[in-house]
Amino acid sequence: MAAIDEMRSSQSTVFLLEQGADIESLFELLCRQYPVREVSDTQLERYYLDSFDWRLYRNNRVCGWDMPDGSEGKISTGVFFIRDKKTSNSICEFTTNRIPRFPNDIVHQTCRRILSDLLDIRALMPVVIVAVRSRRFDILNKENKTVAAVRMESHAQVKDMENTFLAGRLIVSPVKGYQKIFERLRRYISGQLRLPCEQIALFDEILAAIGKVPDLYVNVGVCKLDDSLNTWEAARLVLRHLFRVMQINEPGLRDAVDSEFLHDYRVAIRRIRSLLSQIKHVFPAGQLAYFKREFYWLGQITGPMRDLDVYLLTFDAYRQALPRAMQEHITPFHVFLERHRKIEHTRLCRKLESKRYQQLIKACRAMLDNENIQSHAAASQETINAAKPVRQVAGKCIVKLYKQILQEGSLITPESRDEDLHELRKTCKKFRYLVEFFHDFYSESVVIGLLKILKQLQDHLGEFQDLCVQTTQLCDFAEQMQQEELADAKTIMAMGVLVEKLNVRKAVIRAEFEHCFEAFAQPDNRVAFMDTFSLHNQSRGRTV
């Protein structure tokens, strides 16, 4: 795949062409002023691409693949590109016969590096397909040397029954060494041809034409809350948001687009379970028991596939941890993981089609859409907190969990069980979720600082827990691979060496816990946490 040798500039100018503009007349006017040579006249289908959570769009990048028209279903070479959204300038592009899903699928080093930095492990997905007619002209001097480049493009949405055509573009790009000619050409197009400069980026115009709005907050686990809300009203808003996160990630989970769909789906489940268990006396007991049981079940059935995703994402690190001579010996482990991930994905999709799951979704919608539940709930002792101010109820829960973290952490000694650190990790996670749910009630800068302190402890506990699980499960995997005749002696030996290395790392992390927890629980930090979340400040309505 050879890189395209195309003139690039940070100074290209984009002009608008009215719908139905006479390209031939425009070409004739350019010919009167400058020697012009038409280089190409192509029709193509442009696949605009982005991740599910619009990571490229958020970073002012437009990515796509131009496929020659009429080659759908055939093996054909197209052009994959990354451009600046505002200026349409090319950042990099190369030829390929297929749309890459992940950055690692890309051979072109510059494109792969850019997308790796922006996408991480998210997949590229088609956003919209547009029919494009592109005509390129070179502006020549007396020696027939190219001194500027002009590209005229017209666009229409593919498979649009109403034939929605978009304003065309005329893109003028300079050639190195001929900047003055480029400036004169720009003034001629603007002044004599009276073409306006682009005000709205083409990609934004396309999205507006099809009514698609980039949902930049799709994976955020918090929503805006007013502290005048009562606890039921606030809980309902948070649960509605989390349920939406589940619903919009489910199609990508089912289609196995990338591992983040299942991850975000499971995070929403954990947050829902945390809210249901920590904000007490808000829901009727029967309803609460049902949702707690069913969301626990949902967490259980999604766990095996997520575990396999994590091992696949960690596989390269596993390989690098081994001596060079042993690195290829664990390749069968990757084959094993891929095989079982497909099996677990099939199982999970069946569970998502089950009557039990459909009933849960129906019950969630009914509960979240029922605005009158509060009046019924308020009359019962079991829902006594429903009508209370959410700031008061949430603040009490947050302080209680913070004190629980301090107590659990202070009781851990070098002789404590691994499970004790795991329980502390779960308490930290519940605490963080509540702070994030109700962060609007406190100073944003203060909360960010406190969560940063908490994150250091959570990262430490998280790594330790991962190592505990991995050292055990890798041994189980090795035994299972032998049963499936996927592992020879060299593979088993390599996995044994890997487990030894993980155990060494586990011992180091375990030994560092006391210092890590002391840093979290130092007096200054305790004062900061308590001053922010204490009931004293809550009752006075003060935001620290």
Describe the structure.
With 544 residues, the protein is an alpha+beta fold. The model is unreliable at 1-10 and 538-544 (pLDDT under 50). It folds into 3 domains: 13-209, Hypothetical Protein Pfu-838710-001; 217-388, CHAD domain, CATH 1.40.20; 390-544, CHAD domain (Alpha solenoid), CATH 1.40.20.10. An 8-stranded antiparallel β-sheet has the order 1-8-7-6-2-3-4-5. It has helices spanning 23-33, 55-58, 109-119, 179-191, 202-209, 231-255, 259-278, 285-321, 331-352, 355-369, 373-378, 390-410, 418-437, 444-483, 489-511, 513-520, 523-533, 535-539, and strands spanning 13-17, 36-50, 61-68, 78-84, 90-96, 125-140, 146-157, 165-174. The radius of gyration is 29 Å and the shape is globular. The chain contains 18 helices and 8 strands.
Structural class: alpha+beta
Major sheet description: 8 strands, antiparallel
- Work out the strand percent: 5-15%
Mean pLDDT across the residues is: 89
Poorly predicted tracts of residues = 1-10, 538-544
Distance N terminus to C terminus?
A: 58 Å
Q: State the name of the first-level CATH class of the largest domain.
A: Mainly Beta
Number of domains: 3
Strand order of the largest sheet: 1-8-7-6-2-3-4-5
The total count of strands amounts to 8
CATH domain topology of the largest domain: Hypothetical Protein Pfu-838710-001
CATH homologous superfamily (4th level) name of the largest domain: Hypothetical Protein Pfu-838710-001
Order of helices and strands: EHEHEEEHEEEHHHHHHHHHHHHHHH
Question: Can you tell me the CATH architecture of the largest domain?
Answer: Beta Barrel
Oligomer: single chain
Inertia-based shape: globular
Helical run tally: 18
Q: Approximately how much helix is present in the residues?
A: 55-70%
Radius of gyration: 29 Å
